[in-house]
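If you are new to this repository, start here. Below is one unmodified record pulled from the training split, so you can see the exact layout before writing a loader.
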Amino acid sequence: MCGIAYNALALFTITALICLYYYVLIQFVNMMNHLIGKPPTKDNNWG
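And here is the target side for that same chain:
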């Protein structure tokens, strides 16, 4: 019983860490896309 609970807790922790990692990675990519994507659009508007 303790082994099953420990395995479930470990699996939940690993899954949560993976989800958090992907969430942070996606947020970082979106931020970089905004930082990289905005200057060309401003140049195009001026141009």
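Two things worth knowing about this chain: Residues 1-33 form one domain. The mean pLDDT is 85.
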